Amino acid sequence: MLGFVTLMTMMAAHALVETARDTLFLTNLDAEKLPWAYLSIAALSLVTVKANQMVLARTRDKRTLLAISLAFGGVGHAVFFQLLGGAREPLLFAFYVWTGHLATILVVQFWLLLDDVVTVTEAKRIFGPVAAGGVVGATLGSLAAARLLDVGASPRSLVLVAAGVLLAGAALPRLWKRGEAAEAERASAPRGAMTTLFRHVYLRRLLLLVLISTFALTGGDYLFKAVVERSIPPEGLGPFFARFYAGLNAAALVVQLVLSGWLLRTLGVNRALVVLPAVLLTAATSFALAPALLPVLLLKGADGSLKHSLHRTSMEVLYLPLPKRLRDRYKAVIDVIGQRGGQALVSLVLLGAVHFGGVGPRETAIAVAVLLVAWLLVLYGLKEPYLQLFRRSLRGGLVDRPGLAELDLHSFETLLGTLNSEHDEEVLVAIELFERYGRVELLPKLILHHPSCQVVIRALDAFVDAGDPSFVPTAKRLLGHESPLIRAAALRAMTSVVPDAELLEKALHEDQAPEVKTTALVGLLAAQLGDEALLRGMIQQCIAGDPKPVQLALAQAIRQRMSPIFEGEVAALLTNEDPDILREAALAAAVQPSPTFIEPLLLLTGNGLVRGAARQALVAQGAPALTRLTEAMGDASLSRKVRRHIPRTIARFDPRDAARILQARIPYEWDGAVRYKLLRAIGSLVKRHRVTVDRTLFEARLRTTLERIVRLLELRVALESSRPAGVPEDAPAHECLGHELLVATLREKEINAFERAFRILAILDPSERYGDIWRGLRTGEPKAHAASRELLENALRGVTREAVLALAEDRRDAERLAAAAAALRLSTTPHTYEQALGKLVSDASESVRSLAAYHVAELGLTGLEDTLAGREEKSTAVSEVLENALRSLRRSEVPSVA
Amino acid sequence: MGEPRTTDDMMVGRLERLIMIRSFPGYRDLPPDEVAALAERFVERRYRKGDLLEREHMPVRHVHFLARGSVQLRKEGRVLRTLGDHSVVGGISALSGDQEGYDVEALEPTVTLRIPVDEMLEFFEDNFMLMASAIRGISAEVVNVRRQLMPNGGFVRSEWQPEGPPPESLDLVERMAALRRSFPLEGTRLEAIADLARDVSERRWAPGEVIFRPGERPDGLFFVVYGAVLGTSEGFDLRFGPGDVVGSLGTVAGADRWYEARTETEVVALRLERDMLIDVLEDHHDLAVAMLRALAKSLLDSMAEASRQGRTVTPG
């Protein structure tokens, strides 16, 4: 309301002086002087903007700044009232510049103040009414001016009235609440201001938009004034302008109050901004085709009625996604350069063309039409950066960066330097990165003398995996290392790349450490050296009863020397209970696939400690494993802890096959947790591999999910707003455990279903960041919520858009329900408490069915006994609850909770 | 990487930053690309000797990964801890919602990689491995500190006395109610509780039976529904009752049992496997965050208690 009144005051004063100014200027000066006036306004405004920033740095309060500016404007008007008594040309010119400059600065200050306290969603709701304040003010000002002129007042006297209005209005800004971030970011103005303005793609395009729109509007204004000057005698100009502007302002008010908000909400900012140039283009083209006063009046009419209402509101919203420090810094600059500088530039061009090129109104109209087309093109180009700013705001201002940097000289030096780190963990990461870059040959062999066993073993593994035997001479010394783990690792690594029977025999017979002996056994068997039966028997013995370190050494040795001859040993190790041994066995199974590994690997996916290795091994088994996993998804007898990990295991296979299998499973999956995993797995495939999905399936799924939310909401609203029949008003029907749990579960189901809807949206449109949008809606932080809504408004279409926005709205549940149901064309009927419970005992969710049955028994609602008894329940867990509930109802007792 | 003398020598490059972050526990198993993306979200901060990274009486909002240097944590004039490079500072206070914070003073030129705790949690949502690692790590720390808090280990002793017979077999709703009572975490969703209720198994013991012994590898945690469980270890005398969870921290941390749990009365409990809990946490980010925050608060409280008892808490 304060915004409305403040803007109304400012614009009323401006309408009064505008009438006086245009009358005096056009009566006494040529229209050709206008460009110089615009240019002077721009130059003066730039100076004022700079001064504003300095004042703001001291006061840190935009309210004070606006109050000072209003008072200063009032005093300035009063001074001009005095001076205009002897109306001379330079003074009139100065007066024109003063009024234009003051309006520019005041309006910029006003909107910056408002921008600080609203989100984009609030802006769409309140900017319209606030801007209506401006239109109302302008209308009142124009009507007052016309009335004063009608009763014989001089145009000059309007200036004094305007001065009084501004001085009175100076008290208003202090009544506003202070902008929250005014202090926090005061010192963060960016350096290299103009460079930033031109480098920042959004700021640059915003400036271009303001410039081109100003070119077009100024051209149109010039055309209008030139045609009016020729068509209407000088003595009729004052009353004409007063009445015409009053009419325009009245039209603008109607647009603002009736159309503006609705258009903004339904079209969105980007499309709402198209309305004004589209109408102007129609008018300019009409004039170019058939020059007459009417198209010019239409042109100015559109300008006057839309520019300060729909267009202004939409333009202000465009500044909101900008970080505050950029908005504070550049909004004023863009407005001044774009509007006043643009006015000056285009006026000069027009005058030059009129004088030297003999350009008439028709040619002007053509030029304006061309500019309007450019305006529309700039708007088109602004949409993506506008949305990108919201996306960045949801990601904390971060832009996506490529993952791992290329291995350039500097990176290589860093990696080498890291090998000298005192932290073993860093050295291990560096070795891994050498592998990751595929440059293990650059890993210095001296790393094998590192004091850490872990590092040496990791380096040996890296050399073996790279198949590079050049490490062997250095590794030889390690065979005498004091640690049996290192001796075993060295033996394993060396004989992997260069089989050496003598070395293995020596280790088997001379080294006392069982880890080394076991490693030698595996090496000999792998190289088919020695008595196979004897060697295998010794290995079996180890598997059967040796301590963990020895079994682990065996598993590691087998992994590195894996071949079909170790199939039995690996199958046996896969049934071990130790996660370290299981991991090595799974990795061995990944090296040499065999159908015998598939079943144990499948079961291992239920073990979080070895799941990664098990998945890797299953993928290595290829098609047979994929077939088994596909079957396993439909196997109800399989443990839930294994089933729930199958979707993401399948997602590791060929992305297209995986997507096909996972999609096919969705309609048949009975477990909500597994269905959720299916969605996540498909989402991941779409995001990472851009696989194509069955759009019809997911669109239908999206529709079903949104309908599910509405139904859950409907039943929850019924439970919360009604009471069971027969339960007295003072009985605690809403305070019992069943009600509490049921309502909370329904609320959570809605949230979960909504999240699933966003996952489906991400699958259907991977180019949009629906994950971030969902998080933004859930943060409870108004700006993030508004940014998410803005992105949704632009990304979604049709029924989905309306339904999702309705559900995401921060309104009462009953209102959300009505809006979402209407969007989805679903009929909703008010349910009694019993009816709602009756539906919930048949719900798709096990927990909802169970809680509803429990609550029926808790309340002793015997009227629902038949409903409970008639259910054919497949879930054992729910059956138990149903039986307990029925028993309780028949005993007419209230069950107790442990 | 050499020994820096001043903070000016200590700019942390992109790859170096990746290596450093990846070398922290929990980050080692992440794909390098993921860590590289995370590394971009950290902001490098440099401090001179004597600078304060965080101030007491101000809530800690950031998690600092100490790249170089060392810091001292102080509260009310008492030194809580001294941490060197490759330590994480601020996470526990920030996660626990502690409004009082503590002084964190650089003891030498120090470089940290800093990230707001909310951003960290957001990253955890996409990389559950990290969340699981953080939960495991903090649980291990809590166990470590509590083992020094004799005689109650920071647990509230249950005063439960038998009231009627043990409940009959619990159905799904009754299991949900029991779990909900034992999971008083802010933000815990019933959906998650319902998931857990499907995964738990009911266990019953007669008086005097051993539930687990010290040194055993933990395979599950027990939500006591009925009865009393005694926990004994040298210098400790614990008693758990309905609503308590026995063996939870050690199970989550993957640490061996450190006391013997023996039933004092008939006991009915719900047993949850560690993997099942982790699965449910993965599916319910809110629950995982609530658990992480509760663990952080528990650690902070335990450290404060240790400090009150005049014990020096050795980081685990």
Characterise this structure.
- The complex is a heterodimer of chains A (898) and B (316).
- Chain A is an all-alpha fold and 898 residues long.
- In chain A, 75% of the residues lie in helices and 0% in strands.
- Chain A has 41 helices and no strands.
- The longest helix of chain A has 34 residues, at 234-267.
- Chain B is α+β, with helices and mostly antiparallel strands.
- In chain B, helix 5 runs parallel beside helix 10 (285-308) and helix 7 packs antiparallel against helix 9.
- Chain B has helices at residues 14-22, 32-39, 91-96, 117-126, 128-146, 172-182, 190-199, 248-253, 274-283, 285-308; strands spanning 43-47, 52-54, 62-68, 71-75, 78-83, 88-89, 103-106, 110-116, 201-205, 210-212, 220-226, 229-233, 236-240, 245-246, 260-263, 267-273.
- A four-stranded antiparallel β-sheet of chain B has the order 1-8-3-6. In chain B, strands 2-7-4-5 form a four-stranded antiparallel β-sheet, with no helix packed on it. A four-stranded antiparallel β-sheet of chain B has the order 9-16-11-14.
- In chain B, strand 12 (229-233) and strand 13 (236-240) form a beta hairpin.
- The longest helix of chain B has 24 residues, at 285-308.
- Chain B is globular.
- Chains A and B meet through helix 14, helix 15, helix 31, helix 33 and helix 39 of A and helix 1, helix 2, helix 4, helix 6 and helix 7 of B.
Summarize this, please?
The complex is a heterodimer of chains A (898) and B (316). With 898 residues, chain A is mainly alpha-helical.
Characteristic terms for this protein:
heterodimer; A: 898 residues; 75% helix; elongated; disordered C terminus; B: 316 residues; alpha+beta; 10 helices; 36% helix
Task: Annotate the secondary structure layout.
The complex is a heterodimer of chains A (898) and B (316).
Chain A lengths: L1 H27 L5 H26 L2 H22 L5 H27 L4 H31 L4 H15 L23 H7 L1 H31 L2 H34 L1 H21 L3 H27 L4 H34 L3 H34 L14 H10 L5 H13 L16 H14 L5 H5 L7 H14 L3 H10 L3 H13 L5 H14 L2 H13 L6 H7 L5 H13 L3 H10 L6 H11 L1 H11 L6 H4 L2 H5 L4 H11 L6 H18 L5 H27 L15 H28 L5 H9 L3 H14 L2 H11 L4 H11 L9 H8 L5 H14 L5 H5 L6 H16 L7
Chain B lengths: L13 H9 L9 H8 L3 E5 L4 E3 L7 E7 L2 E5 L2 E6 L4 E2 L1 H6 L6 E4 L3 E7 H10 L1 H19 L25 H11 L7 H10 L1 E5 L4 E3 L7 E7 L2 E5 L2 E5 L4 E2 L1 H6 L6 E4 L3 E7 H10 L1 H24 L8
Antiparallel strand pairs in B: 1-8, 2-7, 3-6, 3-8, 4-5, 4-7, 9-16, 10-15, 11-14, 11-16, 12-13, 12-15
